[in-house]
Input
Amino acid sequence: MLPRPFPRFADVSAYFRCLNSGTRFATVQHKMFEPPHHPTPPWWQSAVFYQIYPWSFQDSNGDGIGDLRGIQSRLDYLRDGTTASLGVDAIWLSPIYPSPMRDFGYDVSDYCNIDPRFGTLTDFDELLREAHRRGLRVIMDLVLNHTSDQHDWFRESRTSHNSSRRQWYCWADGKAFGRRPNNWNARFGGSSWTWDPQARQYYLHSFLKEQPDLNWQHPPVRKAMWDVVRFWLDRGVDGFRLDAINWLGKDMRWPDNPFRFGLRGYTRQHHLYDRDQAIAHEIMGELRQLVSAYPDVALIGEAAADTPGGPASFYGHGDDELHLVFDFRLMKSPWRADSFRRFLSDHVPAIPKGGWPTIVFSNHDQPRHIDRYGTGGDAQARARAAALLLLTMPGTPFLYYGEEVGMRNGRLRYRDLRDPYTKRFWPFRPGRDPARTPMQWDASSHAGFTAGRPWLPVSPDFSQLNVAREAVDPRSLWSLYRSLLQLRRMSPALCRGEYRLIDGCPDDCLVYLREARTDQGWERILVAVNFAELACEFSLPTVPSQGRVLVSTDPLAGEALWDPRHTHLGPNEGQLVRLI
Ligand code: NOJ
Output
């Protein structure tokens, strides 16, 4: 007989009825992270974000490409308060603007419209209204560093030296004997300079050659982009995810980057001059000022992990640049307790006061974490433990569509690939298309994603791994995500609580405490995760109280009492314990 499943808390009062009021947990030595005090904390601190890759979420018209009406038809799935709903707080839409789609939307040809593949502005307004009706916020993706080469601004810019938009982009003469202006490399391979025969100069592109970089030192560029920001804020969007922000500034005297030995391609030089200039911080400061005229807008930045000062430098002084900045360290790390421990002990506390951490394991640019963390071990068990970490570590979690059902990286043949970056490095690098396959809704044809032919093949495991099947199985990964999301929403300790690492566990384990003062006393939650393939048992003498295991990631475990003298964790098991 299976043990009694964990309790489901239908509402906040049911959760707090089982929460013994207590005192603050004072015996643990070091306090690691104390949330900044706000009389009314901003919504994005306790929110859970869900990234939708619009190409792949839901197709409504049978063309094999996801669209806005498709997303709208799935809003109840994301949040409507019923048991079949995941219960997230905000969606981030990867770009939906008109685009030639060389970089699948990150090459924008018109910032104030919707690509016809996805729908119309009317569809967008309706989606926004319907999302807001459910209490779901909507975040747009904003690509500031570059446009598409098909954008009117660039078309005009390339017409002649005298074009009124000439200075909107980064043009330069070549060196003698037809050599490029300097040695800079593009992130997606090759030189970052392309000769334009019409313009009779080279233009700079930090990514694909179809993505010319804007010149942010030129005031009209800023004005135009801030008009774009106002356009969407006036429509009612709740914020922006800002693409590639550390590329915004470059040294326009065009010096060569110093050479770096022993590495390949893009990493073969020190990127001293082609990115990471102070002006990027100035631009973020301006944007912050602009959005402060609108209530409750969130700015979320994407910066390269190796930008000087780390991505956290884009929090500015904690209140004058971005609200949230992605930290990709856990998105690139293996399944090891010390990587997660270092993240919590070094990186989170390094965030400037007033800043707020983000927790992100997967997105549209990296292989899905179920396979990354799963390498060399039990991928399912690790994905379950990762869900516990994602939703209980201090900071704002970002889910990537489909991770809640355990979607894996698609196994694609070369002829299936669509992304130029993936094609360019195939089969030597995993690329990005495998993490972009269609959402697996049910076991019907094409996983319920489309009635047509999907733009990327659906993963063949869809008949096992899909929402319809997992939502009715209380022991599925989906149900674990949902319980954790539900619990988190009711728990001040998990949403905004202080955080401390607990010492004394084996090296392969990670134990931390979240605690917050509530009207009913101190709420204290302990999270323990075993990263090893073997079970382990240990005692935590610094934890003075007993508790109750509210969630175990082992699907066969049941509710149990927890004693700090005998903590037992199965292989890759995580436990969430409410301390009494
Ligand atoms: C980062 C985005 O996440 C990625 O998908 C895109 O290709 C580059 N920026 C360039 O815009």
About this structure: The pocket of 1-deoxynojirimycin is lined by residues 103, 106, 143, 207, 243-244, 302, 364-365 (CB under 6 Å). Residues 1-6, 9-13, 18-22, 26-30 have pLDDT under 50 and may be disordered.
